[in-house]
Amino acid sequence: MRKIHVITQKEAVAEEKLKGCTAVVIDVLLATSTIAFLLENNFEPIYAVKDSTQAIELSKQHSEPHILLGETKGESIHGFQYPDPCLIKLSDAKQAAIICSTNGTIAIEKASKANVLFISSLVNGHVIAERINLQQDGSSIVLVCSGNDDRFSMEDFIGAGQIVEHLLRKGSYELSDSSKLAREAYLHAQENSFKELYECETAHLLKRFNFTDSVEFVLRHYETVDVVPLFTDGKIVNDHQKVPTKRL
Fold it and tell me: Which residue windows are transmembrane per the record (predicted)?
């Protein structure tokens, strides 16, 4: 029976231990939600890097059309679009995106040694669980909460619980203690229409920087985005192996 683990923040990731595992990085506010909306709006591939310096260097190497998105500790970066899912608009032609962030993109880098690495948020966690359930490799499943700059993040833990709950609806899995608690947190939050997330630390941070609509936008699109972001060969693409599904 496959086991599900939840790591509560990126700083606790033991990178070598992810080899052979299926990992999922979760950063509900903002990075992984933004990545999901980028893919949905014709931005592909997506390059997730740890900071603006790497983003600029990578941008110089790309002659094809692309956009730069990024923030550092919640603050905007000159020359970068803020990585807020509210700001993502449909691209007429497919183009690449380069994104850096304080938490989510660093978590992706730390989890990059996993055998398979997906990117999830509350907007698409249902299809991530579906895709994982289709695997036949028996690998352990490690859900990585990005956290909030070296601290626990409520919304990411709830996002991990979302995947746990959907997996349990589809099959039999062995849960670690953290997975059990994440599932309970998700079920409680869902029952209360995720009201707690309007008062989480990240929500207050976004309000302080005048990005007041992000939480509402993500929750309004809860389980409505059917993309499966897959990290492969150093970039994120939509995993088209996914079987179409209706919301659970």
Answer: none
User: And the tokens for 84?
Assistant: 């807020």
Residue whose entry in the numeric block shows the structure tokens 């609806």: 169
- Nearest CA-CA partner of 48 in 60, 63, 32: 32
Predicted local confidence at residue 242, as pLDDT? 45
Q: Are 96 and 236 in contact (CB under 8 A)?
A: no
Give the residue carrying structure tokens 């995947």.
163
Q: What are the structural domain ranges in the chain?
A: 3-234
Amino acid at 143: L
pLDDT (tens digit, 9 = 90+) per residue, 109-146?
999 999 999 999 999 999 999 999 999 899 999 999 99
How many other CB atoms are found less than 10 A from the CB of residue 95? Answer: 16
Contact 183, 161 (CB under 8 A): yes
Kind plus residue range of the DSSP H or E element containing 188: helix 177-191
The single-letter DSSP state of residue 9 is: S
- CATH number listed for the domain at residues 3-234: 3.90.1560.10
